């Protein structure tokens, strides 16, 4: 779970960037560039391959066993004019439940 915590930490800047973009534009950014973030593979760490924004959704891709290539997804809900984040396993290569931080478990 410490490896996953690193991913959430790197994604926190993305959450701020997406929220600020929404606040200023009323829509979600299409990608990292639109959100004013570095390229996905430039946002990395010891256990994180990349942090990617796609239509406001932030996907953290991990590296290293046992979570290599697994993904964690942060999905924005913009109901009511503010951004509320939902943390969950990624849609492509979902991170297994046992590795999810408590804030991301259903």
Beta content: 15-25%
N- to C-terminal distance: 16 Å
Low-confidence stretches: none
Share of residues in helices: 10-25%
- Can you count the beta strands? 4
SSE string, helix = H, strand = E? HEEEE
| Separate helix tally | 1
Strand order of the largest sheet: 1-2-3-4
- Main β-sheet: number of strands, strand sense, barrel status? 4 strands, antiparallel
Break the fold down into its secondary structure elements and pairings:
Layout: H1 2-25, E1 48-54, E2 57-62, E3 71-77, E4 84-89
Antiparallel strand pairs: 1-2, 2-3, 3-4
What would you say this structure looks like, in words?
This protein has 106 residues and is α+β, with helices and mostly antiparallel strands. It has 1 helix and 4 strands. It has one helix spanning 2-25, and strands at residues 48-54, 57-62, 71-77, 84-89. It has a 4-stranded antiparallel β-sheet with strand order 1-2-3-4, covered by helices on one side. The longest helix has 24 residues, at 2-25. The mean pLDDT is 95.
């Amino acid at each position: 779970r410490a490896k996953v915590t690193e991913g959430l930490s790197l994604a926190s800047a993305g959450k701020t960037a997406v929220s600020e973009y929404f606040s200023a534009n009323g829509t979600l950014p299409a990608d990292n560039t639109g959100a004013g973030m570095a390229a996905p593979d430039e946002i990395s760490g010891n256990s994180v391959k990349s942090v990617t924004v796609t239509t406001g959704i932030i996907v953290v891709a991990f590296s290293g066993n046992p979570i290599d290539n697994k993904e964690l997804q942060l999905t924005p809900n913009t109901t009511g004019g503010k951004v509320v984040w939902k943390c969950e396993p990624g849609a492509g290569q979902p991170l297994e439940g046992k590795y999810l931080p408590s804030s991301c478990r259903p």
